[in-house]
Amino acid sequence: MLVKIFGSAVYGVEAISITIEVINLGEGKDSMIVGLPDNAIKESWQRIESTIKTNHLTMPRTKLVINMAPADIKKSGSAFDLPIAIGLLAATQQLKNAEAPSQYVIMGELSLDGEIRPIKGALPIAIQARKEGFKGLIIPKVNAREAGMVNNLLVYGVSHIKEVIDFFGNGEKGLEPVVINTREEFYQSQCSFDIDFAEVKGQENIKRALEIAAAGGHNAILIGPPGAGKTMLAKRLPTILPPLTLHETLEITTGITPIFETGFYLFTSYVPGHGYQVVGSHIRPRIMVPSQWNLPVGLSLSVEFGYQRPEYSSATWSLELRPIIDKQWGRWYLALNPAFEKSVRGLNSSTGFDFGPSGKISFDVTKLVAFGVEYYSSLGPVGRFDGWENQQHQIFPAIDLNFSPAWEFNFGVGIGLTRSTDDLMIKLILGRRF
Length: 434
Prior knowledge:
Helix 2 (about 45-55) crosses helix 3 and helix 4 (about 120-130) crosses helix 5. This protein has helices spanning about 40, 45-55, 80-90, 120-130, 140-145, 160-170, 180-190, 205-215, 230-235, and strands at about 1-10, 15-25, 30-35, 65-70, 105, 110, 115, 135-140, 155-160, 245-255, 260-270, 275-290, 300-310, 315-330, 330-345, 355-365, 370-380, 380, 390-400, 405-415, 425-430. It is globular. It is about 20% helix and about 40% strand. It folds into 3 domains: about 1-180, Ribosomal Protein S5, domain 2 (2-Layer Sandwich); about 190-240, no CATH class; about 245-430, Outer membrane phospholipase (ompla), Chain C (Beta Barrel), CATH 2.40.230.20. Strands 10, 11, 12, 13, 14, 15, 16, 17, 18, 19, 20 and 21 form a 12-stranded antiparallel β-sheet that branches.
């Protein structure tokens, strides 16, 4: 019987899903693990055999082949003990509902009696599991809170292999998923540190340099011999950084003539412990081609100019040019907005424009409701775009609601496509027409 179990390998800060195929050949005695496993994975056979026997299960004496795919990527670490053991039990028909584990990513190191020990990289493993559409993640209980920060994924923390066996044997019941209040965790993490920058004695020059870097948002590189204190200082740097913030925007737009309107934006930021603060403001005049010209598409140009306080943005004054091309075909609507943005004062003010195309397509389900997809990006300087992973690309499935001639509502959930883009962003706009 061939069984497929899914695990995950962490490389740097990213995870790659690993398919663990287990087949019971029924002939021979020498079982093997293939797919570039390291010594820790090869030694897992002894830990798995001890776990199975101490929990009164049957260790097969026929030949088993365990393949870890992709086979050309080196796998390392003891965190694959648990998925290999579950695959072995399913392949030898000792696990009820043997198809159920394929909906989960399973990771954990086994002790000789079946206890499950902590692993490294629980957060990137959870992010990758959600990205690939798995139903849930089963990991050591010690790591469950870290992985639980990822929403839209069932995270189960387990402390013994019997809990996993019983979970699948009882129709995926008996374990409660970890529930984390992400916003509360976010606020608590802003002022909860086990170490403190104030603990550093001496090192006045480097302390002063790091204080300047933290205050101005500058980069810093620490160079020195072993034992000089580089790691110690780097670990304490986050304790003097300003807290992360949640941003909100107020927009007011008014039509001055049928072809000209002006918008005003006020940016605010909520800082834990300090309340709301004004970040900056922008003004956005927009001119449109008159409808009397009867062009096949709508054409307009908006010019946005604004200021952001230096503690929130390295570009204190910025300019954006955004041509807008749109078209309505019956119930379908399409808009393309190639944007050109430049820092007028502040960091990168001496460079040219950055290019960031965006667009939207939507369908009017009724006169009040429209479903669509929005796309936003930032490719980098015109003429020398950044590499793909350093670009920002985000897709927003969105819904538009027109409650009345006076009110409109837009809601979207953004999904990042590159590592430089936020993995998840929620957009909510409530508009009042005057």
